[in-house]
Amino acid sequence: MQKKSEVKILGIESSCDDTSAAVVCDGKLLSNVINSQSIHEKYGGVVPELASRAHQQNIVVVVNEALSRAEVSMSELDAIAFTKGPGLLGSLLVGASFAKGLSVSLGIPLVGVNHLHGHILAHFLREKDEDECVPQFPFLCLLVSGGHSQIVLVKDYLDFEIIGKTIDDAAGEAFDKCAKVMGLPYPGGPVIDKLSKVGDENRFKFSKPSIPGFDYSFSGLKTSFLYTVRDEMANNPNFITENVNDLAASLQKTIIDILFNKLEKVVKQTGIRRVAISGGVSANSGLRNRMLLYAERKKWQVYIPKISYTTDNAAMIALVGYYMYQKGKISPLSVIPQARINFMDL
Length: 346
Known about the structure:
Elements: E1 8-13, E2 18-25, E3 28-36, H1 48-70, E4 79-85, H2 89-106, E5 110-114, H3 115-121, E6 139-144, E7 149-156, E8 159-165, H4 171-181, H5 188-196, H6 219-235, H7 239-270, E9 274-278, H8 285-297, E10 301-303, H9 314-326
Parallel strand pairs: 1-4, 4-5, 6-9, 9-10
Antiparallel strand pairs: 1-2, 2-3, 6-7, 7-8
């Protein structure tokens, strides 16, 4: 494929409940527009049918706004990158269908992007021409979100190896489900983070799994949390209200302890001290502070994404699409989005 002096990629992200579009030019971010759906809050979780309908209503507006902010016309685009999975199938289909239609109408290539690769490469997003602090290869990435908890060895922009992963629930899922036990609003992770700031993180002790190797498990923690709350409420119906800050802080510390216990072991075994975090849970203040603490005490080189790049966004999809386009990794129009996708699938 002949390389142009300037390559402009439109990215489309619709894997869950955020409709997003972004434009990158030679890896530099020109725009990133996100429309978040608040309708799911009253249901305590994302309702797939409502999410896909909202995507249909928002996608044209979001794409037009992204192009307008970037000051790029559709005729200047070189390719359309879109999230092909993992995610909610109905939501993915909206983004994929729109991307395919745009690809055909403009006569430009289509690039299907693995959503998880986007979270990892979010560290390479830049908004200015100057060089910014980005990880050098190889580095380790702790990818933590509502559906995934993985330790990934990143060898190059499109070369990854999973070192450890969750065998059941993800860290973000543990945050949200334990928050629901306490009657907190959805999404529970940010609420627990806020409450924990004034709580005693050593007040309560919850179960930590003993899983061999570098894999994670959070199902036992959820059960331990549920039983603790249930037993305490049997004696004091106001237990949650009176102890919500300490419960939040103790839960958050336990989850972070579990994550870093395995991460530290991987660092020791591989000898790689360049460590990044990514995914929705990487916005958690406790997790970010622990990274900074390890940078100081253990001399790790740590990379913490901007808060705006931790949640689902099209900027990261456009950037992965840029690197894939440069390598000639183009998707056929027959590409089908998948709710579950192999992490190694490029």
